[in-house]
């Protein structure tokens, strides 16, 4: 596992009381000296006691010991200030910007110049949804665009599996790379890397509670929006689907809803798979219908719209954190 001294410094800073992502983004640019970092921590954080350089070095060594347990499960750690740390897309407030990533596979797939499309959806799609999603992903990877998703069951897995056939895919995890979740998708994760893809996560320790895991899934959903040029919703129940359809024996609301909300907030273009003639009475398209009704900038995917979307991604002119909207008229 490779990492720079800068990356370990960033990771160490994050462990101190009162130090969040926004503080790091405001105060650090990467590659500061230990002396500078310790001074900033003492002057601008909520520590109860003065931090010494020895204290900071002790904390760094403790983290290095933890990372030594990764063995072959992780290729490296990168952080803000590192030359190859990827730029996110969209307009993002400081508290939600990624500041470090653990990875396994081809980290260059996150490069701002790489064309990425996120494809997400519900956990239990029917066969028709799966068939339609596979066709969309197949068309995307034919155009040398990387598929991003979250390694969850259902639509996420379908997106990864189809992308591997002739293309590349990135899986964003809510867990450390030596403890892949969901466990039943470990083989799929390994296959993604073997086929030239990438696994990334912001975590190097196991979650300590269900609440923490739930928070990690939300953070994962945000990264699905941040590292793509557009996001596609295959299908998903809405937040009120259980009540609307009297389905109470299972959780219907999915992380796809959150990922689409993040994309809206970040000004990342959004598209949905939907056919008014065939999907009108299918509860699995509740979120798709809701977004179409409530949002002006949602694109309904047709073969023509998909081709147009891909062409605009290919033709985009990149600006720092200001990608050209795919659906500008």
From TrEMBL:
<protein>
    <submittedName>
        <fullName>DNA recombination-mediator protein A</fullName>
    </submittedName>
</protein>
<feature type="domain" description="Smf/DprA SLOG">
    <location>
        <begin position="77"/>
        <end position="235"/>
    </location>
</feature>
<dbReference type="GO" id="GO:0009294">
    <property type="term" value="P:DNA-mediated transformation"/>
</dbReference>
<dbReference type="InterPro" id="IPR003488">
    <property type="entry name" value="DprA"/>
</dbReference>
<dbReference type="Pfam" id="PF02481">
    <property type="entry name" value="DNA_processg_A"/>
</dbReference>
<comment type="similarity">
    <text>Belongs to the DprA/Smf family.</text>
</comment>
<dbReference type="InterPro" id="IPR057666">
    <property type="entry name" value="DrpA_SLOG"/>
</dbReference>
């Amino acid at each position: 596992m490779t990492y720079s001294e800068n990356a370990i410094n960033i990771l160490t800073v994050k462990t101190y009381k009162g130090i969040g992502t926004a503080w790091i983004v405001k105060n650090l640019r990467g590659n500061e000296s230990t002396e500078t970092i310790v001074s900033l921590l003492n002057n601008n954080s909520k520590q109860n006691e003065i931090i010494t350089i020895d204290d900071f070095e002790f904390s760094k060594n403790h983290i290095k010991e933890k990372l030594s347990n990764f063995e072959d499960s992780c290729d490296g750690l990168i952080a803000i200030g590192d030359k190859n740390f990827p730029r996110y897309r969209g307009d993002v407030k400081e508290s939600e910007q990624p500041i470090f990533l653990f990875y396994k596979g081809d980290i260059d797939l996150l490069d701002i110049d790489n064309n990425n499309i996120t494809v997400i959806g519900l956990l239990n799609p029917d066969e028709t949804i799966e068939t339609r999603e596979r066709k969309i992903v197949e068309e995307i990877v034919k155009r040398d665009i990387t598929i991003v998703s979250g390694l969850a069951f259902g639509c996420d897995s379908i997106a990864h599996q189809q992308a591997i056939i002739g293309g590349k895919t990135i899986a964003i995890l809510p867990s450390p790379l030596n403890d892949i979740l969901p466990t039943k998708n470990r083989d799929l994760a390994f296959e993604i890397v073997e086929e030239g893809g990438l696994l990334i996560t912001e975590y190097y320790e196991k979650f300590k509670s269900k609440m923490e895991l739930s928070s990690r899934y939300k953070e994962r959903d945000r990264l699905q929006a941040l590292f793509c040029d557009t996001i596609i919703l295959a299908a998903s129940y809405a937040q009120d689907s259980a009540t609307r359809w009297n389905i109470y024996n299972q959780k219907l609301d999915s992380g796809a809803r959150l990922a689409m909300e993040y994309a809206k907030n970040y000004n990342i273009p959004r598209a949905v798979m939907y056919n008014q003639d065939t999907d009108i009475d299918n509860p699995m398209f509740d979120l798709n219908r809701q977004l179409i009704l409530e949002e002006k900038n949602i694109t309904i995917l047709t073969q023509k719209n998909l081709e147009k979307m891909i062409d605009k991604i290919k033709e985009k002119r990149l600006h720092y954190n200001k990608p050209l909207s795919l659906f500008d008229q």
